[in-house]
């Protein structure tokens, strides 16, 4: 059974930092990513990382966010370090994992709020 368990959201002031974590288990995963859905908007891809460590970022977070992954024997943990946060970064953040079979899995979502 595939599970994605997220943690690390919260409330932070503008300019602050948050670190999100997602532990994925139950399959062999290739690409991992973080998506976000701001209030009243559609979900968008924020950052992704494949099994080889190649990363991609949406332009609005380049230079501020860093995605990384830690491959263990039976799990994969993906992190999103978010620095210099802005109010427009406020969103529900979702972890996404793609198995080698091409199946997509989602975490439950974690709220990140940037406000003074």
Number of strands: 11
Which sheet architecture does the biggest sheet show? 7 strands, mixed
**Percent of residues in beta strands?**
over 45%
Radius of gyration: 14 Å
The ordered H/E elements are EEEEEEEEEEE
Count of separate DSSP helical elements: 0
Query: Which percent range fits the helix content?
Result: under 10%
Regions with little confidence, pLDDT below 50 for 5+ residues: none
Global morphology: globular
Which structural class do you get from the secondary structure elements? mainly beta
The termini sit apart by 40 Å
Describe the 3D structure.
There is one protein chain. The chain is mainly β. Helix content is 0%, strand content 57%. The chain has no helices and 11 strands. It has strands at 3-7, 10-12, 18-25, 29-37, 44-49, 55-57, 65-71, 75-82, 91-99, 104-106, 110-114. Strands 2, 4, 5, 6, 9, 10 and 11 form a 7-stranded mixed sheet that branches. Strands 1-3-8-7 form a 4-stranded antiparallel sheet, with no helix packed on it. A hairpin with a 3-residue loop joins strand 7 (65-71) and strand 8 (75-82). It is globular and about 40 Å long.
